Fold this protein.
Amino acid sequence: MYDYKEPWKKIIADALNSILTTAGIEDRVTAEQVISEKPPNPEMGDIGFPMFSFAKMLKKGPPQIAQMLAEKIKETNGKNGTAQAQGPYLNVNLDRAQTAKNVLAEVFNNTDDFSFGKTGTMTGKKVMVEFSSPNTNKPLHLGHLRNDVLGESISRIIQKCGAQVRKVCIINDRGIHICKSMLAYKEHGDGKTPESQGVKSDRFVGDFYVCFSKGLKNEVDELINSGTEKETAEANAPSMKKAQEMLRQWEAGDAQTVELWKTMNSWAIEGMKKTYERTGVSFDKYYFESKTYMLGKDEVLKGLQKGIFYKQEDGAVAVDLTEEKLDKKILLRSDGTSIYITQDFGTAIKRYEEWQFDKLIYVVGSEQQYHFKVLFVLLEKLGYTWAKALHHLSYGMVNLPEGKMKSREGTVVDADDLIDSLRDMALAEIREKGREEDIGDPKETAEKIALGALHYFLLQPSPVKDMLFDPKESLSFTGNTGPYLQYMGARISSMMRKAGQSAETIASNADFSLLVGDPEWELIKIILEYPDAISSAAENLDPSNIAGFLYELSKAFSRFYHECPILNCEESALSKARLGLSCAVMFLLKDAFHLVCIPFLDIM
Ligand code: ARG
């Protein structure tokens, strides 16, 4: 793996050691101890090396050390560029021709299994990533879209760093929420099916959930109007009581209830899988709460026996976590039914039994921070040493600008509806620009633009931040958007078609050492940063690093494209080198698009 900083770290360490020897000091410096930074502006140099950490050893001020080093290096080195002292920094200007040659050779080295950027920082690690994890009472919504793309993208990024990745999903398919949809269906379904109604099957289930919610609200309002307190009204509304009764019947294995549950769940899950397929999300394994919750229950009872948990007066099993600065928490209800956290014990244990991970990342919204704190502490208390390997990747809320898109419940918008409307907007734009003829299947292209717009917009802010999804802004062809990046890719792709040569031919005919002009160098310097962007995205579990890299790359390419003639360049050798550089950028775009789930378009 070519690392442009490596040779300089060695040069600096050697020079420092020579200075140390002359001064009669016994300490020695290794190349790993030399750290680098990106100078705040390119005029200062390509790499900055701060001298602070060597001050003590040399008994000299950092600026003085930088001076001495600059002189020493001038004496001994020629090939790798130049170094100059600036305050406490030694700033280095890389040799452009040499660097261009090295890095582009690396990019073209293995284009089938694009190895550029594979730093191997996570080689040998087994990482399980849980994401999406829907409930089966309604379809996926906008929040899931953020979750899904975060989970998928992080999985791809850490895999690129050499980790073995297993993508998993827990389907919360039992509990009061699904009973609500079931109850509404039982009362108002009249034997209808998704097929008979021509409705996507998860939407069909969700419609009954909406129906239940409306009915419940009417009952509660009525009770409140007749003088009942809100809380009591909510707990005593007849629909609520019926749903709870249904849950008890389900847990008791009542045949009819179980049958209805199976039917409605299969509708919900079948529909969700279609959405996953549509957005390019996939899982290596689905876990089902209905299959793991009993194991969780057993675990809670074991904890009770061991005295880690206790039984309340009402019979519920609870744990007191005030010592851990957390609250008291119920783990099993007084009627013996399990709650949300119960299944998570079982699910985690089963996962570790099946695949001994070094790390398990739960991609789940920030509103569940407390839940995961409690879960991790309790698994540790129960004696599972791997509990230390559990990590909650908490992400913020995503909202739509007020009044932009109406959802059925008035609060959240269905994932499918949102993608449909993005696709229709993209399609309208394609028609308006009169591009229908050129681009093959306009609807398919519009769908890919929609996904590019959506995914890039969702991954741009760091995960912890709440965000506003602006459909129109996300689709803009200019500015920091997915379609802008896709357009850059399509532009290069079309240039490659015009050139009519394979990448191998282009690469082997190019003398990359000719690429020393400013726009070319600016672009090459960004290419150099790709491996670091990937490893820091992996380390911080933050795909926005890749998003930022892509934007910088596209901007630099755009400048290069405008300022440097490529196919029309009069000097044939330079034309070939520039074509090669463009081709390298296209490979990089493709690779990085994959990491952030943006479809690459050859034509737009
Ligand atoms: N289905 C849950 C919800 O929608 C999220 C599940 C998160 N994962 C977990 N292991 N608890 O709130």
Notes: The chain has a mean pLDDT of 94. The pocket of arginine is lined by residues 130, 133-135, 170, 172, 344, 347, 362, 364 (CB under 6 Å). The domain at 128-296+355-409 is CATH 3.40.50.620 (Rossmann fold). The chain has three domains: 6-94, 128-296+355-409, 415-595.
